[in-house]
Amino acid sequence: MRDEEVRSMYFKYFQEEQLPFIQCGKCGHKFFYPRVVCPKCGSSDIKIGLSEGLGKIFAMTRIYKKDGSYVVYGIVEMNEGFRMYANIVEENGNTADIGKKVKVIFREINGKKYPLFAVT
Ligand SMILES: [Zn+2]
């Protein structure tokens, strides 16, 4: 697989509201960032898996804007064992904090869907 192939496959999954990740066929390492070589062992024996979309907040930060509103960014650790950097949304009065459970949701930006996380 080439870089663009992996990225376009990711993008296709996003439009179907599915969250892909990559598993290394050699060392078993799982990662989200779409690339064709395992960052741990350097193997190009990789395959794409699909996440159930559930995880917990590993690290996070609130970025405040001038008007007092803020956005939450964090690193989410998925149940499958990989971590990804993402935007976290607080819905229904659920506040984001380290260790809190999240689930993937998809939001349309300029007509295309992208994954982010809602606190559950
Ligand atoms: Zn590997």
UniProtKB/TrEMBL annotation:
Gene3D superfamilies (UniProt xref): 6.10.30.10
Organism lineage string: Archaea, Thermoproteota, Thermoprotei, Sulfolobales, Sulfolobaceae
Pfam families associated with the record: zf-ChsH2 (PF12172)
SUPFAM superfamilies named in the record: Nucleic acid-binding proteins (SSF50249)
Domain ChsH2 rubredoxin-like zinc ribbon: 15-45
Name under which the protein is recorded: Zn-ribbon domain-containing OB-fold protein
